[in-house]
Amino acid sequence: MDLGRTVRAVSAAERTCLTSEGPVTGRALVIATGLRARRLGVEGERALYEGNWVRRPSHDLPWFRGRRVAVIGGGDRALENAGLLLPVAREVHLLSRGPLRARTDLSAPVLANDRLVHHERARVGRFDVRPDGVTVEVHQADRVWPLEVDAVCIYIGNEPNSQLVAGQVELDPEGYIVTDRFGQTSVPGVFAAGDVCTPPAYQSLANAAGQAMVVAKRIALSL
């Protein structure tokens, strides 16, 4: 195990990682880079993260007390976290691009709460970050309007960290690495395990651990 190195590039064909300390080559290469939160890709988003205006209620709920919060998303996680915020936040604004996709048992009690304002068919145009808060530029129907908040919670899904091998191994349309039942990718000697190659419905720690075991055995038997 070699900790502390940053992998800057990967050559799948050569089974080589180019790291901050130099190249590392093996007889097999396993990609287990997991997921990252999907970004909106709008102006001001980088400053939003760098300024620590993106918060997680499940991690820091007391911080939200008395604050105005925008929750962006329409799935289970967005509604679940909006529900966590309602007892403590001063205002909770839920922005969804379309109809909610969350389960009814999550969405119904949240939407019934008078402290939640649901802005349906609303998308974010940009963020303007100030020392004392954030202005969210909201595009809704035929108008554009500003929403002033103290924090933003973004729940628009995840995407696989497959960019290091994009264009080298086969990916599916969502960017997940395509493997066979042994974790083998389209390049001989290159394997993948965990969320980077698993559809969202089947992602779990137990599944990732099981895949890693299968990959390790396959490599051991093939070397």
From TrEMBL:
**Organism of this sequence:** Symbiobacterium thermophilum
**Domain FAD/NAD(P)-binding: start-end pairs:** 19-212
For this UniProt record, the keywords arranged alphabetically read as follows: Flavoprotein, Oxidoreductase
Name of the featured protein: FAD/NAD(P)-binding domain-containing protein
State any single GO MF term: oxidoreductase activity
- Which Pfam families does this chain map to? Pyr_redox_2
